[in-house]
Amino acid sequence: MKTNQKKAWLFLAPTIIFVTFFSIYPILRAFVMSFQSGSLINMNWTRLSNYQYIFHDPEFWRAIRNTILYALISVPVALAISIMLAWFMFSKVKHKSFFETTFFMPYVTSTIAIGIVFRYIFNGEYGLLNFLLRALHLPAPNWIDDPAMSLTTIIIFGVWTSLAFNIVILMGALRNIDPNYYTIADMYGASGTEKFWHITMPQLVPTIAFLLTMNIIAAFKIYTSVYALFNGQAGVGNSATTAVFYIYNKFQIVGTPGVAMAATVVLFIIIMFVTFLQRKMMKKIGGR
């Protein structure tokens, strides 16, 4: 037994070292730096001054508000659309593999590249989206340059980019549902809607819980989409700033790593708290 344990630890050692060096150590280092001020090569202990700064900074609270709103709106909307599209392809479409590949392509494409394309689609003057809206005699807002539309633009883009991963995972979950459930339901004359709500959805609860967790964490870490859509800025007047963009700005642009790390610690706590609540909620739903 001892020999096997030694071999097991030997095989696990590279992973443990990798996780410790690239995951655990940065978290601990960020926590320590949040109590320090100065440049990276000459940091001094300043206790809670960094936390006092961010809690009194309106820009920080705007970033947190935008991030929370983005997560609360984009995640459920994207997941609902993903479930509908996955169920439609699973039950109605014959060549599922082709459509799965098509939907998955945006996931393996650079977010920056997609963001550049969407920047032209969202353009207020010659963008494709406004062209279609004008053709339908609907209001055509300035998606990029209007501060009031910045968050809406990010949400639309976020919903679209998250569909790929969600649909592929949901399709895999749908294939694992025992087809005998649907056969028995057909024997009793169950409609498509009844089969969906009483068979499909209960079987998808674990997968939905997983996707909710992944999507919420990704939503709270949104940065690349903002950078790509607004050409390296956080929208007009920082109207599209998010928590990670605030951290990047304080660390890289302003040059206050202590403030950036304090914001990082706060964001980490928020993500952990929201993820905990979400998992508790999904456990209650799954247990019913």
UniProtKB/TrEMBL annotation:
Record carries keyword Cell membrane: yes
Entry-linked InterPro entries: ABC_transporter_permease, MetI-like, MetI-like_sf
Gene3D superfamilies: MetI-like
Keywords, ordered alphabetically: Cell membrane, Membrane, Transmembrane, Transmembrane helix, Transport
Single GO biological process annotation from the record: transmembrane transport
Record carries keyword RNA-binding: no
Membrane topology: Multi-pass membrane protein
Every ABC transmembrane type-1 domain range: 64-278
Superkingdom assignment: Bacteria
One GO location term (cellular component): plasma membrane
Positions of transmembrane segments: 9-28, 68-90, 102-122, 148-174, 204-223, 258-277
Localization of this protein: Cell membrane
PROSITE patterns, A to Z: ABC_TM1
Pfam families: BPD_transp_1
Family assignment from sequence similarity: Belongs to the binding-protein-dependent transport system permease family.
Name of the molecule in the record: Lactose transport system permease protein LacF
Species classification: Bacteria, Bacillati, Bacillota, Bacilli, Lactobacillales
